[in-house]
Design goal:
Blueprint: H1 2-20, H2 28-33, H3 36-49, H4 53-60, H5 62-75, H6 81-94, H7 102-123, H8 127-150, H9 153-156, H10 159-167, H11 182-191, H12 201-209, H13 245-278, H14 296-302, H15 304-340, H16 349-367, H17 373-406, H18 415-444
Helix pairs in contact: 1-11, 1-13, 1-15, 3-12, 3-13, 3-17, 3-18, 4-5, 4-17, 5-15, 5-17, 6-7, 6-15, 6-17, 7-15, 7-16, 8-13, 8-14, 8-15, 11-17, 14-15, 15-16, 17-18
Length: about 450
């Protein structure tokens, strides 16, 4: 929930509303709900085996899993842009370093927050605990702030039109569709309720929570941890016939729904604020003011103090997006290295995790200078969206072909679950084809 709020909720959906009014709002609810069958399929494998979803891909086909790992690696070369986006808020808030341009202040804060987050992750005792507590703090602060901001009379007066646009698209459009915005729309859909390769992180979070058979696994610890954790990589899962399987499934459904519906709720509020505050004034959050423009949300309710509060919260949200992504990417790289290269198991999980965390930090700190943060986030989303199209089919194969080899078939996913997974895969594929066709037609013109 927190990770998705740092991308689609705070940036892309409000941007679309600020530019096109309520013309595209009807896509929001389907975009969020589309994530549920993917989350449930990913979580089911980890719940029943205790393994990460990448281990399931490897059991299915090592070469396909390896190719997916490479595509995922490329996708996350630019996620440092979230820290830069948070830097836009801190630059607008502090105007520090003094005498620097806004763009260079943004880069300064982006690099500084990446360094601070990396040190916090590396020095923590149990890494996941640090991330979860920090995200809870930011989520609660944001929810309270958004609810208060949405209670302002100026915003409440727009609720009837907003609810109408949520179901029936605004006609005529307030402005003609710009084909170059296809990437933004795809990014908004991909990040609604998380999305892209970020969806695979759910498996690793469930392992850290000790859900189902994952309770037998250890935690990834930083330098403050007490012991080196050694995971048994590539071992065949044991047969289980656990009496609490129904309880586990209910937890998985509720846990996924909380994240997805929570994202939907907060996104609806930011879109309402964008429609009431940004759209009438033709304000678009982009470039070096990606987060600063949206400070008008809280400013409506609390004046200058609200602007300061929003910038602080936005910076925290966008930077915790970098922190959670860096942690999860380092986990996946550690998992894959130990699986694909047996000789690597001479090193402990902690050592590999810390090495990958440092490598991810260095790479993302370097890619900050390549372009505006919004452009880099969109590039990552497009690659991740194509990855979603590919692993939607793999999730079906893992749950309905791999799992029955190791787990009692009575415990495997029910047939109804494949319907939602198939629908999500087909819709993602259709959106990818439409996006590529739109971009190709634009370039031909």
């Amino acid at each position: 929930m927190a990770l998705a709020q740092g991308s689609g909720e705070l940036i892309w959906w409000p941007w679309l509303i600020a530019k096109y009014g309520l013309a595209l709002l009807f896509l929001l609810i389907p975009a969020c709900l589309l994530q549920f069958p993917l989350n449930y399929a990913i979580g089911t494998y980890t719940l029943l085996t205790g393994e990460s979803i990448f281990q399931g891909f490897i059991r299915l086909n090592r070469w396909i899993a390896f190719a997916l790992w490479i595509l995922m690696t490329i996708s996350f070369l630019w996620f440092g842009s979230f820290a830069t986006a948070g830097g836009t808020a801190l630059a607008a808030l502090t105007r520090f370093p003094h005498g620097w341009t806004l763009h260079h202040q943004m880069l300064f804060w982006g690099e500084a927050t990446i360094l601070v987050c990396c040190i916090a992750l590396a020095g923590s005792r149990i890494v996941y605990t640090l991330i979860e507590r920090f995200m809870w703090l930011v989520v609660v602060a944001t929810l309270v702030g958004l609810i208060v901001a949405c209670s302002h009379p100026t915003v409440l007066s727009q609720v009837p039109a907003f609810l109408h646009g949520l179901i029936i698209p605004q006609r005529p459009w307030p402005r003609p569709w710009d084909p170059t915005d296809a990437t933004t729309l795809l990014t908004a859909i991909a990040f609604a309720g998380l999305g892209g390769f970020w969806t695979l992180f759910y498996s690793y979070w469930l392992r850290e929570k000790g859900v189902g058979m994952a309770k037998a696994m250890g935690h990834v610890e930083g330098l403050g941890g007490r012991k080196e954790v050694v995971f048994e990589v590539g071992a065949v899962p044991w047969k289980i016939a656990h009496p609490h399987i129904s309880h586990w499934r209910r937890f998985l459904a509720v846990d996924s729904a909380i994240g997805i519906l929570g994202n939907l709720f907060t996104t609806l509020m930011t879109c309402l604020l964008a429609y009431a505050v940004l759209y009438p004034n033709h304000l678009l959050p982009e470039g070096d003011e990606l987060a600063a423009v949206q400070s008008r949300f809280f400013e409506v309710a609390w004046g200058p103090a609200g602007r300061v509060l929003f910038l602080i919260v936005a910076a925290a949200f966008l930077n915790d997006t970098w922190m959670a992504t860096a942690d999860a990417v380092a986990r996946i790289h550690t998992d894959c290295v130990l699986s694909f290269f047996p000789a690597a198991r001479r090193w402990s999980v902690r050592r590999w995790y810390l090495c990958w965390l440092i490598a991810v930090t260095i790479v993302t700190a370097g890619t900050l200078f390549l372009d505006q943060p919004g452009v880099l986030i969109q590039l990552s989303a497009v690659i991740g969206f194509l990855g979603t199209v590919s692993f939607a089919g793999l999730l079906w194969a893992v749950n309905y072909r791999v799992l029955p080899r190791y787990v009692d078939q009575r415990l495997c996913p029910k047939p109804w679950a494949v319907v939602g997974l198939a629908m999500a895969g087909v819709i993602y594929l259709a959106l990818a084809v439409m996006y590529l066709w739109t971009r190709l037609a634009h370039h031909v013109r």
